[in-house]
Amino acid sequence: MWNDLLFRLRSLFRREVVETELNEELRFHFDHEVEKYKKSGMSFEAARRRARLSFGGHEQVKEDIREARGASFIDNTLQDLGYAIRQLRANPTFAIVITLTLALSIGANSAIFSVIHGVLLKTLPYPEPNRLVRIFLSNDAYPKFPLNPFDLRDFRSRNKSFELLAAFTRGDVQLSGSGDPVRLNGFGITSGYFHTLGLQPQFGHEFDEKAEIPGNGLQIILSDRIWRTRFDAAPDIIGRKITLNLQPYTVVGVMPPGTAHPGNEYQPLPYGEDVDAWWPFTFEGNPAQRGSHYIEGIGRLKMNVTVEQARAEMNALMTQLGREHAGDQGWRVLVIPLDSEIVGASRRLLLVLMGAVGMVLLIACANAANLLLARASTRQREISVRLALGAPRSRVVCQLLTESLLISFVGGAFGLALALVGVKALVSLLPANFPRAHDIHVSAPVFAFTFAVSVVTGILFGLAPALQASRIDPNQGLHKGGRATAGSGHQSRLRNALVVSEVGLACVLLIGAGLMLRSLLNIVHLDPGFRQDHVLTATLSLPPTEYKTQEDAGRFCSQLGTSLESLPGVQSAGLGSDLPWSGYDDNTSFNIDGKQPPRTTTSTRAITWPRGTTFVRLVHLCCAVDSSTTATRKTRRRW
Amino acid sequence: MEAQRIDLPQGTLDLLILRTLSLGAQHGWAISERVQQVSSDVLRIQQGSLYPALHRLERRGWIKAKWGLSENNRRAKYYELTRIGQKQLEAETESWRKLTAAVAQILESA
Predict the structure, then answer these.
(1) Does B64 touch chain A (CB under 8 A)?
(2) Cα separations (Å) of A45 from A25, A34, A72, A268, B33?
(3) pTM of the complete model
(4) Which of A166, A325, B15, B100 could share a disulfide with A193, CB 3.0–4.6 Å?
(5) Are the CB atoms for A206 and A312 separated by under 8 Å?
(6) What residue of B is the nearest CA neighbor of A8?
């Protein structure tokens, strides 16, 4: 095989050497023949004539040898390619129009495929990611709810489905000490969290179960980024005390670069975004109180345990817990594979987009095929001449296909360039919480995809016109004298079919785009109940050691509010616990005086965001009250 | 007068070339001469089929070519059998024997 390829390539690229050798070899043979006949008594002239006769056609033999060397296919293709390039250069308008059409549509396909590859196809950066699942609770009121820490602890000790089970909750920390204080994206994690993900610190170790005991929590694991930017990559960082939230935390580990966050529902930080600090989650409070839900479960399934089996077991455990604790009644457990949790609803969106750009490509193909058909009728004479001179039909089809492939490859190359620019624009346009936006790049598979699309496109739009053109009767074609003639009946039927399919596809696209635009307008015009324009927001955290009581914090906040309002250009300023609809709230139930409380299973519920009066005035907030659903205890929920 | 010539059956040319080269490296002319001599002039290889066959066998890696000096000090292209070619020769000889034996058996039984 290898030998064969080298041999063919040598025939192709060292053509002159090979030809010289061939001539020399045949010459040698010829001379020996002449010599032989001379020895048998012929004159020199007679011997030469005899030798030439026995040799057969010299050129024919050489052609047969070239054929045997296997270079003729590549040779033909190169010839066709050269001819195709000349054809396109002779007709630049045609070439530019058709190439640009294809470049745009192939580029759109490559760009969307880049997104699909990054988001849907590439595996998550954890070992055996298909065994990773997220764990949530669910009931009629809250379809997807975080866990209570003590529930998690019971799950962890009682389950048989998971190799490891861990939980995390967001809690940003303030780093001070050297330089300006900064707020770090932080997460509280239980022991075994990194082990569950299949990761381990590059230095130090992750938290053990001792760190989960209240009072042992002053430990921290840092990201590689913070270790490098704030601590100059100090090799002796492990064991050092650093100031977080104005308290001394001991550094016990540094994660390797590129440690991807698995994404969270509650106080979102999307998948892949940088987390800078992980602190040990401590199980504080009364284990009998199961009302508060704020940690998110993640687990690694044992080998050969399916998601369904784990779900069944977890639900049995939850029923068991419900018998032990009143607060655990009425919940179901959701076990969701990590990749579908991260990708979620965007899968459908991406597939719809891929379908749409696929249709654009089909339209472009139909368009290109039509252009080729139109041009083929002006090339009838040329093709007739070739056929009349004895070119086999397959050779003509090959030559025309080479032309269309050349066009589609040039289009593909431009398309790839467009995709390179387009993907950057696309990623910057994606909403901040779009899953796996960090993983979207124009990578090798995208190149392969573009290549494949170019080949398919070239054949798709080139084949029908090529077959059509090669069907000309040379006699007729020559007699028409090469004038552009209206296509035959068959040809015009083909062109009509192409136009019809183009219009049909365009209609489908238009309708789809119209529906999407309509939905978009609906969302844009959705009234959130407050005015969003001219409002700026910022987040800060107050170290609990310095602001011990609610009053201390309140004093700081009202001072900050007053100073902000004194700034020029600020109309009013306010502070609150969280922004509305940002994914975090407290909620509680209450009864309205003089009104009958709802049936036992439901109660009147309010979602609250503790905040100053100015805040309410600022965003013209109306209080949302929903009396249809349940929550008889103080819980925290996400939207 | 020359002996009566027989056209080479399909596929036997390769076998003849391989067999001839199994005796040592040769150039094209010597191959055709040798086949003619050994077959007592019954078989004669046309140059028009010899050289394409040699180049095809070279492409397949059964024989390899190198330039050397001929008896009368001219540059000539010598072909020699490769290891794969050797195996191929054995396999083809074997199947040729089987074929001819079977054909002979049928002809004689009739």
Answers:
(1) no
(2) 22, 9, 36, 97, 22
(3) 0.63
(4) A166
(5) no
(6) B59
